[in-house]
Amino acid sequence: MSLTPLEAQAEMTRLAGEIDRHNRLYYLDATPEISDADYDALFRRLEDLEREFPDLRHPNSPTGRVGGAPLDKFQQLRHAVPMLSIDDVFSEGEVTEFYQRLQRLLGTERVPVMVEPKIDGVAVALVYRNGQLETATTRGDGTTGDVITENVRTIRSVPVRLKESAPAVLEVRGEIFMPAAGFAKLNQDRDEAGLPTFANPRNAAAGTLKQLDSREVARRPLDFIAHSFGQMEGAGPATMSEFHALLKEVGIPGSEPVWHVDTLDGMLGVIHELDERRHHLPYGTDGAVIKVDDRAAQTRLGATSRAPRWAAAYKFPPEQKETRLHAITIQVGRTGVLTPVAELDPVFVSGTTVSRATLHNQDEITRKDVRVGDTVVIEKAGEIIPAVVKVVLEKRSPDAVPFSLFDHVGGLCPSCSGPIAKEEGFVAWRCVNFACPAQAASRIRQFVSRKALDIEGIGSTVAEKLVERELAHSPLDLFEIPEASLAVLNLGTDEEPRIYGEKNARKVAEALQRARMMPLSRWLYAMGIPQIGESAAREMARLHETLPDLATSAILAELRTLKTGERKDDNALLAPYRIASEVGPAAASSALDFFRSAAGKAVLSHMERLGLNPRSDNFAPRPEEAAASYDLPLAGKTFVITGTLSIDRDDMKALILSKGGKVSGSVSKKTHFVLAGEGGGSKRDKAIELGVPVITEGEARAMMDGTDSTPE
Questions:
Q1: Contact present, 441 and 472 (Cβ < 8 Å)
Q2: Cα(227)–Cα(307) distance, integer angstroms
């Protein structure tokens, strides 16, 4: 039954309150009352109501945790109270001098101080007005910072509503950080994708908060802890201890653990205790923050232009150890990236025994000149991830030889013996076998994506569970899973099962039937072969009718012999076909290497057994037909789409592709036109800066019809 707006408002308020309460129970109290599935049901119900009644959605709705539309740029905001930094001290002698200075300035032997971990994060100020999160701002220069409210709303440990006992105006200051487990997982995922890893959790957190698209921020594992305050209505707490009690009362996470001492020996003692305990905290910490507890004493001590005199941050020295690297092994990640790993003689570093450390990629090995048998220096990046810092060259054996990943694996994937390749612009070697078992889940996700075979109902969780339950070892196995087996697939745990269901299984079965009829270009893209994106796949399908044709293609064989940038129309074989720029030597080599490898032949054989024979929907069998098919109105033109159009962006992209054009995600000097709808934003600005023509949807459609007068 449909709700009235008044009823919907009441229900949305109730749901938001329930979700906020469960967030506090989960993230602050660690005492959840409901299962993840029940929580998801509340969340989905609120999302449905907000879609039905968009005008009733509150800015601080819990659904904001998944992010919103990208910003063009960050706004600036002046802090009501300057955000000062804290002076660092680097030895126990300097810590002693700091405490003795407090004693002298305050004229007392005992100065009560609070000691807490120095979190390796990004300083932010959160302003709550009448219990609602109003703004979140970075420190910036201490006077003015960037407004990052939309990004901070995605962090689930940041309450967007406070309990009723909160002051009418409350500004809390703290650190946004990346927890140890999340940082390790993020770097692992970036390693597997062949992307540069973050040096430490702070870099990861800072890089995330700089994203203009809060949806990207929502995908990163950020957390928040408050440690101080700025403006506050009323007198405010008399001590920092009272402030921490206020945080707990209103539902904001505060620093833990904290110590309260009032002597120099006591302060040094808890710093030593923290040094021992910090290796087991869920976040990276590189020191201890010492603060005078009494706010009246803080006022008496005052501040310099950049830092308060009543606080100091003692930095723990990074612990490094030498050990022997006795082997380098190769792991194959979920995305097919081959990651070299240093196998070490066990050594105790920063609280744990380390016997392995990632070497990331061949470029990193070459840069540090790491060789098997070397004595190396180890430390934990951000006190979390073991890393090889450097080689002790004076201890190197004379017979140590440079390491080559390609030679080490013989040019083949250690998991499936398929071919490996290094994509242009990437540092990592990657297995390109579509059926590689090590990357089954990620290959399935690519295979079923909307731009590939569009098999709705199989997302990341389902793909991973299919592999975990051994129902699929490669994407093609999807066509052999009985519908009944898919219906009873458990997406949860044995303790809390979540069954996929007959209805969902039926939808997937129907989508798989439709996929059998998908054109060759979609199948090529679905295979995720390096260098073959949507445009290259469509161009290859224009030149080949089937996958077996492509595997033995004379056209691709000729293309791979060209040097990068060499003109195709100077080649006797290629000139009649007028081949688009998307298919160059790298793309041709990648396709041929895959389909001519044992792994590629196995894929073709598997498809034949399944009766899968995708055919091109734009095949031009003769050179003159291929050349004619290339004489389309947008041939050779690259477009970037931005803003709101009269049709969905994907539909506009498909229309441009059908007219011979290419669509890119970013503006560069190689872009021919930026198609800008309403609210074009930063891409429009970039186009103007680079001198790229900005056109309307009407002008684009005129170009497709061949009736425009738009400049070349």
A1: no
A2: 16
**Looking at the domain assignment, is residue 454 inside a domain?**
no
Residue 291 among the catalytic residues: no
Number of domains into which the chain is organized: 5
Q: Which residues contact 498 (CB under 8 A, 6 or more apart)?
A: 37, 490, 491, 492
Q: How far is C-alpha 76 from the chain's CA centre?
A: 25
Question: Could you tell me if residue 410 is left (phi over 0), alpha (psi between -120 and 50 degrees) or otherwise beta?
Answer: left
Residue 226 burial class via C-beta count within 10 angstroms: exposed 0-12, middle 13-18, buried 19 and up: buried
Q: β-strand 259-261 against 132-138: which pairing, if any?
A: unpaired
* Residue 36 included in any domain: yes
The token pair at 591 is 């396709």
Q: State the pLDDT confidence band at 663, using cuts at 50, 70 and 90.
A: confident
Same-domain pairing of 141 and 246: yes
End of a domain among 261, 294, 315? 315
Q: Does residue 484 lie within any of the structural domains?
A: no
One-letter amino acid at 379 equals: E
Buried residues in 58-86 as b, exposed as e (16+ CB within 10 A) = bebbbbbbebbeebeebeebebeeebbeb
Cis peptide before 257 (omega within 30 of 0): yes
Instruction: Give yes or no: residues 359 and 254 share one domain.
Output: no
Tokens of 226: 């408050």
Identify whether residues 202 and 160 lie together within a single domain: yes
| Residue 16: alpha-carbon gap to chain centroid | 27
Q: Of 118, 291, 422, 683, which is the active-site residue?
A: 118
Asked if residue 415 lies in contact with residue 436, where contact means CB atoms within 8 angstroms, the answer is: yes
The domain that holds 372 is classified in CATH as: 2.40.50.140
- HEC profile of 262-326: CCHHHHHHHHHHHHHHHHHCCECEEEEEEEECEHHHHHHHCECCCCECCEEEEECCCCCEEEEEE
519 C-beta neighbours (distance < 10 Å), count: 16
Contact between 263 and 269 under an 8 Å Cβ cutoff? The reply is: no
Beta bridge partners of 169: 129
My answer on whether 21 and 168 are in the same domain is no
> Going by DSSP bridges, is the β-strand pair 122-129/169-177 parallel, antiparallel, or unpaired?
antiparallel
User: Residue 708: which pLDDT band, with cuts at 50, 70 and 90?
Assistant: low
Residue 429, H or E segment: strand 429-431
**Is the pLDDT reported for residue 314 higher than 80?**
yes
Domain limits at 681?
638-705
137-190 confidence digits (pLDDT tens): 999 888 999 999 999 999 989 999 998 889 999 999 999 999 988 888 888 777
Q: Strands, E, within 130-185: which ranges?
A: 132-138, 144-146, 169-177
- Domain with residue 605: its CATH number is 1.10.150.20
